[in-house]
Design a protein that fits this description.
Elements: H1 2-12, H2 19-79, H3 86-106, H4 108-115, H5 117-132, H6 144-163, H7 166-178
Helix pairs in contact: 1-2, 2-3, 2-6, 2-7, 3-5, 4-5, 4-7, 5-6
């Protein structure tokens, strides 16, 4: 408000102003400052709303994306041992299965399908494999060959998953949230 008053006083200060001119100048300065404040408030609300949407999308995607990637690394470490502990491998496979279930049930798989269809189908195929062969993957039945096979399949998932960025998945999630579910 002080800036508006200063500008008005500088413009009209060269001539002598009457009382009504001063009043109209002050009213103009007050109205200008109020309108400027309202417009600034509206613009900052829009920016803040967009930032909240972006943050929510990234948080949603990272909540399901990062555990799957981390469990893949844990499985690699267990599989690379000379004599792998089959109980630890089985426990890791159970965690991977839970992570895949959360990945699919949360809807991140739909976001991923819009970004990379091949990777989404690989994840679903691996999930189905784990569900169908649950008994064969028990510690008593695990062999080094099965672990190597699972490691190869998991690498087909996690390598492309690491190449995707959370930002790209988050942006796609935001697009899905903004559009109706039936549009492409």
């Amino acid at each position: 408000m002080n800036l508006y008053c200063f500008v008005l006083f500088w413009i009209f200060g060269k001539k002598k102003m009457t009382g009504s001119e001063w009043k109209s100048a002050m009213v103009g300065a007050v109205l200008g400052s109020l309108l400027g404040g309202v417009f600034t408030y509206i613009a900052s609300l829009k920016v803040m709303e967009e930032e909240i949407r972006v943050q929510a999308a990234r948080e949603f995607v990272s909540r399901h994306y990062l555990p799957l990637a981390g469990l893949g690394l844990e499985f690699y470490a267990l599989a690379k041992e000379k004599e792998p502990n089959f109980k630890l491998v089985y426990h890791c496979l159970e965690n991977i299965e839970k992570s895949l279930d959360a990945f699919v049930k949360s809807g991140v798989i739909l976001v991923l399908h819009r970004v990379d269809k091949k990777l989404a189908s690989r994840i679903l195929t691996f999930r189905i494999y784990l569900l169908k062969h649950k008994r064969e993957l028990a510690p008593a039945y695990l062999t080094k060959e099965k672990i190597q096979y699972l490691e190869k399949k998991l690498q087909e998932i996690t390598r492309p998953l690491f190449q995707l960025s959370i930002h790209r998945l988050g942006d796609e999630y935001r697009k899905i949230q903004e559009k109706p579910w039936f549009s492409k």
